[in-house]
Amino acid sequence: MTAATAKAAHGGQRSGAGRPIGAASIRSSAAQKARIALDALAQVAADDQAPAEARVHAAQALLEAARAPAKEA
Q1: Which one, out of 18, 28, 49, 67, has a CA that is 20 to 30 A from the CA of 3?
Q2: pLDDT of residue 2
Q3: What values do phi and psi take at 56, rounded to 5?
Q4: Residue 13: what pLDDT?
Q5: Rg (the chain; Cα; Å)
Q6: From CA 65, how far away is CA 48, in angstroms rounded?
Q7: How many domains does the structure of the chain reveal?
């Protein structure tokens, strides 16, 4: 096995390899949906007409999200 063959056996350039096209837009879309979900939780937590159990669960979810470490891109 030559050095060139050994390198190819361990990866190297291949058709279809690498980050898929649109991966950044998927990440952006997920971040937008997360913001929408957090806004919805905040609305439930602040809604005086919502059942107390729903308000508590929404508040707990918001606190957990606030404590979660941010993932780096």
Answers
A1: 18
A2: 59
A3: -65, -45
A4: 79
A5: 22
A6: 22
A7: 1
The answer for residues whose C-beta is within 8 angstroms of residue 9's C-beta and 6 or more apart is 1
Domain span including residue 27: 19-67
Residue 13 lies in a domain: no
Is 6 domain-assigned? no
The per-residue pLDDT string of the chain (73 residues; one tens digit each, 9 = 90 and over) reads: 555 555 556 666 788 777 777 677 787 888 899 999 999 999 999 999 999 999 999 999 999 999 988 776 5
Does 9 map to a domain? no
Q: By C-alpha distance, which of 65, 28, 71 is closest to 45?
A: 65
Amino acid at 62: L
Q: How far apart are CA 27 and CA 23, in angstroms?
A: 6
